[in-house]
Amino acid sequence: MEKRTKMILLVLMLLLCSSSSAVAMMGVADAEAKRVAAKEAATAAAAKEAATAAAAQEAATAAAAKKAATAAAAKNAAANAAANAEQTRIASTEMLPNGVYTLRGGRGGKLCADEGNRVICNRDAVGPWEKFTINKEGDKYSLKGSRNQKYCTDEAGKVICDRDAVGPWEKFTINKEGDKYSLKGSRNQKYCTDEAGKVICDRDAVGAWEKFTVEKHGDKFSLKGGRNQKYCTDEAGKVICDRDAVGAWEKFTVEKHGDKFSLKGGRNQKYCADDSNTVQCNRGAVGPWEKFTLTAI
């Protein structure tokens, strides 16, 4: 009986040891699982942080690229604006070829006249006194009235055409304002206006009254040679520049042909041709030799 009791106790002890070992093994496994899970969580967090940093870097790069593109666009826009302004400036100083024009004031849309002691814009039709000769003077223009063939000047209180030569006050800045033109006197650099009873240059800005309609009177041009500064004439058999004044034969009709121009003489209304060693106006039609390139110098 004692022996049997010992056997039972031994079996019970073995069972108790096996249970403790199983519990211990389960604890180890659980700890390992938690360690692996923690490591995976740390790896995932690191990956998320790296992705966030990469996204932030991409956003910063995109923002920098957008800023650079905006700056480049602004620079291009400024350059284009400057180029357009320069083209406008050039166009404004090269827009009127020398010739005879009428001026119409902005106040009442009346034609301006050279009345000797003043220029006034109150005429309904063009007569001798309503024609002005406009000539380029460097980057400005001179105006000559038709009453006494005197140059107009920016006089104190009015514009008057009574000068024999062109000086500083006889030069006007002419700028294009839509389909009209502004005139600026050289005395005080003020804009001219169609004032009641006179034209006066005393305005700081361009308004309706400071815009003049400038129309070319006639469709012909005079040419002056560079050798002796004489007017060119449609002489028999040749064009020669030896005239001191403009008459019928010294007026040429200029017609555009693509990027070139034809000239028609005033003697017999024939087209001029670059004929061997001379220019003569004896052609009935325009061919290659009757086309000239005109360049502003």
Description:
The chain is built from one helix and 19 strands. It is of the alpha+beta class and 297 residues long. The strands form eight sheets. The protein has a four-stranded antiparallel beta sheet, with no helix packed on it. Strand 4 and strand 5 form a beta hairpin. The protein starts with a helix and ends in a 14-residue tail after the last strand.
CATH fold description of the domain at 96-216: Trefoil (Acidic Fibroblast Growth Factor, subunit A)
> Radius of gyration, rounded?
46 Å
Structural class: alpha+beta
Shape: elongated
Q: Under the CATH scheme, which class of the domain at 96-216?
A: Mainly Beta
Low-confidence stretches: 89-94
Spatial separation of the terminal alpha carbons? 141 Å
Total DSSP helices: 1
CATH architecture of the domain at 96-216: Trefoil
What kind of sheet is the major sheet? 4 strands, antiparallel
* Strand/helix succession: HEEEEEEEEEEEEEEEEEEE
Q: Could you report the average pLDDT, rounded to the nearest whole number?
A: 82
Number of strands: 19
Largest sheet strand order: 5-4-1-12
**Fraction of helical residues:** 25-40%
**Strand portion, in percent?**
25-35%
